[in-house]
Amino acid sequence: MIRVLVAEDQSAVRAGLVLILRSAPDIEVVGEAADGEQAVAMARELRPDLVLMDVQMPRLDGVSATRQVVAERLADVLVLTTFDLDEYVFGALRAGAAGFLLKNTEAKDLLEAVRTVARGEGLIAPAVTRRLIAEFGAKPARQPTADPSVLDCLTRREREVLACLGEGLSNADIATRLDMAEATVKTHVSRLLGKLELRSRVQAAVLAQELGI
């Protein structure tokens, strides 16, 4: 069973998310939080596999809550957004969120995203990843870009895979572009995430965009 904590301040939205999650036989909702502080406290107490985290919440916003949950290694975090709060989403990814979803995501896609993140893959729909990257690529950077020397530890192939992640490509897409087996792509992704000390492929995509590779 995948144990999920739902953090959402709007009770009607939270109830809808819980209803969807409980419809799946392999997912258990272990708690509901109405604000960021409660989300962190419940994550400490319940140790869920995953926190489904809204961005804009009272007392403690979703970005700050994500940062605490990830820093304490309490759970993986899947962030919910309306895309009206792009910079909050960007902050959540920097804070270590494993991925993000639009609030109007179809029920089946929500369930699959939860399963994917719970498997440790951190793979969110490439189309959504590309949209986020495009949103930030069109704006001037508001924070200092990363130091290019962080890539010195990567092999040439790992750099190529990182560049593909920066475009929001899936493992299958990367395999086709670089003419390698999909399993090999997964290995390269895992290795580069480890070397760069990143929590998810979405963080890797953001880094690739910042460095312009």
Automatic annotation (TrEMBL):
UniProt keyword Hydrolase present: no
Any Pfam family hit: Response_reg
Source taxonomy: Bacteria, Bacillati, Actinomycetota, Actinomycetes, Kitasatosporales
Cited PROSITE patterns: HTH_LUXR_1, HTH_LUXR_2, RESPONSE_REGULATORY
Protein's organism: Streptomyces shaanxiensis
Keywords attached to this entry: DNA-binding, Phosphoprotein, Transcription, Transcription regulation
Limits of the HTH luxR-type domain: 147-212
Modified residue annotations for 4-aspartylphosphate: 54
Protein's UniProt name: Response regulator transcription factor
Domain of life of the organism encoding this protein: Bacteria
SUPFAM superfamilies xrefs: C-terminal effector domain of the bipartite response regulators, CheY-like
Response regulatory domain segment(s): 3-118
